[in-house]
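COMPLEX REQUEST
Ligand: pyridoxal-5'-phosphate
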Amino acid sequence: MQTRSDIIDLHRKHNFFPWTAQDAVGDPIVMARAKGVEFWDVDGKRYLDFSSQLMNMNIGHGHPKVIEAIKEQAESLAFCYPQYATEVKGRAAEKLASLAPGDLNKVLWTLGGSESIENAVKMARMYTGRSKIVTRYRSYHGASLGSSSMSGDPRRLPHEPGIPGIVRVHDPYAYRCPFGYAPEGNLDAYVNHVIQTIEFEGPETVAAILMESVTGSSGLIIPPQGYWQAIAEYARSKGILIIADEVMAGFGRTGKMFAIEHYDVVPDLMVVAKGLTCGYIPLGAVIARDHVARFFDKNMLSCGLTYNGHPVGCAAALATMQVYSDENLVENSRVQGDRMAAHLNRLKDKHKSVGDVRSIGLFGVIECVKDRTTREPMAPWNAKASEMGAMSKVAARLKERGLSTFVRWNWVFTVPPLCITDADLDEGIAIIDEALNLADEGYTG
Ligand SMILES: Cc1ncc(COP(=O)(O)O)c(C=O)c1O
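STATUS: Structure written out below.
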């Protein structure tokens, strides 16, 4: 059995750590086993998983039904040529279509979020014969070259100019709104800005508007009611497709099966990954409405992957999708989400460094500021590790106290698995509450 430091040494020699200079990798957790909302490192230290790993482990760790489905499928048929049919691929697509809103009925399988985004955009370009894609600045759609170009997040910057034809617009981010602060948001300004940008670009050149239904890692931004509806209505009037990115927000995360359902909009294409299999096996998908699917009846679908509709991935997806309903996880996301929102508001009242809290279902964030009046963030946007200031101390304290979550710049995310109980949620919030004292020490207002 290798020790913790042996394992880290092996990693330093032979594995790249993503999104970091390799010398900046501090002291990674060496994970050994996991169950439900908890995991343990090789030395037996327990952590509460408050980010569902990378916001994907919605059903929780170590679910026996998903593990069994994977074993059974691997034993009977581990792989199949993508143009052959299998029962499991048919049933997984049928199940996904039954969960997706409206007539989102036909599925193209991929291996994750980035590939799904790339394929959705290819489909939109083929369907419309147009090239431009409108996306938002505070967005992340993936790390492959195309999907990173479609993101607004600074993770794209080292890869500029990326692929051509991407037009970015501002976000419906009330707390840091380019159109001035209004607690309830600036609905008309947000929508008119998108419409005006497209009018200047030439709507007849725009294939699709690609947006996260509720924005995740770029700040947990929840569009106000009316936003998606108005944008979808405009898009339809101009023959522009709507692509909803549900990679992070989908599968119960927001208290509905898909976040776009909060807005009663059926996108032309919907992109899913993460919670589809919760990482038990990598899998993603693009789901198309009937009118888009019909286009490819006579036109070649110029998309494909060796691992399209991977049988073991589809078996994992089928079992995972069943777990959501068997265990009422979407309902639990709503119920625990209400409890989490109350906790977050209490933290905001208690800690001067908490400028804003936002959540929908079990999708939450705490935004830390140096000054509540100026809203200067506790760590700047796109902060380097050396610029994280008090936020580094918060992150270190959370880890020390056994709470694993995503601390990015001035945001602390609260995104636990949907199977979380009252006791686990309360325990995690109590740890965050204590760690926020360190953010308060960095308050200068
Ligand atoms: C909203 C969103 N879209 C797409 C992606 C890319 O997914 P993947 O990392 O599986 O390629 C992510 C990943 O975090 C995401 O959050």
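REMARKS: The first strand starts at residue 31 and ends at 35. The chain has two domains: 4-59+328-441, 64-326.
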